[in-house]
TrEMBL record:
Stretches assigned to the Flagellar Assembly Protein A N-terminal region domain: 9-186
Segments passing through the bilayer: none
Highest taxon above the source species: Bacteria
Taxonomic lineage: Bacteria, Bacillati, Bacillota, Bacilli, Bacillales
Name of the protein in question: Flagellar Assembly Protein A N-terminal region domain-containing protein
Length: 471
């Protein structure tokens, strides 16, 4: 039996080839008279190369009640979407017994357990520190035309070994090469450093410390002394007007009272209970449980002061991403400067690297030009004079040095560009109140706070500083 009446079956395959639709074109006067055979629909689908995921029940319905589906698009085939792969990750088995959050742990009675805010775990030689979980390729899908649809593969991740650690041959496992304590330094490199312990204060009886490893001080660091570490520094007491430099993180249990002397500089994080009249810089975060007063504080990413008091008064605070506190300023409108959303030191370094690269490229060009002349002489005379041969050796060595230098500069340039590209929208968040007297800067935008704001987030929208209520 053939179909009856005037109609046309149009087939449309979606751009992603995951769906196919039919459009039954019928003149209005013929709608009640047409008869459509299932074979006609399948032939139309076949003509459009639709062969997978055909919805037979829909085809049956169209042929049973053609008037219902006339002049309307109906999905008649459904493919299988590909499943995207998962990104690679790194697991840290040595942290299994450590509960380490982003900030100080709040106890049941509301107090803050700052003593355990950063645990520097001991590890043994040969202990597994990190395990790479590779990215998955995902699962392919199937188009309605029967073709496989390739999935989006997950993004791979690389282990970043530092000092005193070893990778297995497959570069999927990282082990401790010595007994010591784990420290993360620049660009998230994982290290194991030996430990230097001071059982009391850093004073005239101990002197300055410069140690290739992690330093643990069970007392205070007094005025005028200096502690340098290629790992972490942990001070169980307080720090006065001293200088502390760590390539990893710095933790100070009892706070910093610097009297506008000395400085605290960490490649990664600085964690402490309070900062007063001090100069503090961290490559990543500055996390303070109680207060920051009349200090200069810089963080590559965030400054967080959200403890039971959590107030920031006076001074200059600069963060690449966010500054957070319960209270900003006071009722006396003490001037306080907050700057977010820019990383001037990175941008300055990038400009410097670009300039250095131009010089290196120019020197490479001149070196290659000189080597080209030597090659021309060699082709003509078949042998270089002694002075020319010596010059060729010098030029060749110079080229090797310049090539190595250019690769190092290019790698650092790429890292900086990636970090600057990854900058998210900057914010300043007051979880209780922000008082007048605050000057906030988002890049080139400046805003002065002239009245109180309660539970407010400040962000940039459409080129202006805007506010939103914190829930």
């Amino acid at each position: 039996m053939e179909g009856i009446g005037k109609y046309k079956i149009d087939v449309k395959v979606s751009a992603d080839k995951l769906e196919a639709e039919v459009l039954l074109r019928v003149d209005e006067q013929d709608i009640d008279e047409i008869v459509i055979l299932e074979t006609d629909v399948y032939k139309a689908l076949q003509a459009s190369n639709v062969k997978y995921g055909i919805l037979d029940d829909v085809v049956r319905d169209i042929c049973t009640l053609p008037a219902k589906y006339a002049n309307a698009r109906v999905k008649v085939a459904q493919g299988v979407a590909p499943v995207a792969g998962t990104d690679g990750t790194i697991e840290y088995p040595y942290l299994a017994s450590i509960n380490e959050g982003e900030g100080p742990k709040e106890l049941e009675d509301g107090r803050v357990d700052f003593y355990n805010v950063t645990t520097i775990p001991n590890v043994a030689k040969g202990q597994l520190l990190a395990r790479k979980i590779p990215a998955s390729q995902g699962e392919p899908g199937t188009a309605v035309t029967g073709e496989p649809i390739a999935p989006k593969a997950g993004k791979e991740i690389n282990m970043k070994p530092g000092k005193n650690v070893v990778l297995n041959q497959e570069r999927t496992m990282l082990y401790a090469a010595i007994d010591g304590q784990v420290s993360f330094t620049e660009q998230s490199k994982m290290n194991v450093f030996p430990v230097f312990e001071v059982n009391g204060d850093v004073d005239f009886g101990v002197g300055n410390i410069d140690f290739v490893g992690t330093v643990v001080i069970r007392g205070n660091v007094l005025n005028g002394f200096r502690v340098k570490s290629s790992g972490d520094i942990r001070v169980l007491g307080s720090v006065e007007g001293a200088e502390l430099y760590a390539e990893g993180s710095i933790e100070i249990k009892s706070g910093i009272v610097a009297q506008d002397k000395g400085c605290i500089v960490a490649g990664k994080d600085v964690r402490t209970s309070f900062i007063q009249n001090a100069n503090v810089t961290a490559g990543n975060q500055v996390i303070v449980s109680q207060s920051i007063m009349f200090s200069t504080v810089r963080a590559g990413k965030q400054i967080i002061c959200k403890g039971s008091k959590g107030f920031i008064i006076g001074g200059v605070l600069q963060a690449g991403e966010k500054i957070v506190a319960r209270v900003f300023g006071n009722s006396s409108a003490t001037p306080t400067i907050l700057e977010v959303g820019v990383k001037p030191e990175l941008r300055q370094e990038l400009a410097s690297i670009q300039k250095e690269l131009q010089n290196v490229y120019e020197n490479l060009r001149k070196t290659d030009q000189g080597l080209g002349v030597m090659n021309q002489i060699l082709q003509v005379s078949k042998e270089l004079p002694a002075d020319k041969r010596l010059m060729q050796i010098k030029l060749t060595n110079t080229r090797l040095v310049l090539e190595k230098e250019s690769k190092e500069l290019e790698a650092r340039r790429n890292d900086i560009e990636l970090e600057l590209k990854g900058e998210g929208p900057a914010a300043i968040e007051a979880y209780h109140v922000m008082y007048p007297g605050i000057k906030m800067t988002f890049g080139k935008l400046v805003h002065f706070i002239k009245h109180e704001y309660a539970r407010t987030r400040f962000i940039v929208l459409d080129g202006e500083i805007s506010t939103a209520t914190l829930i």
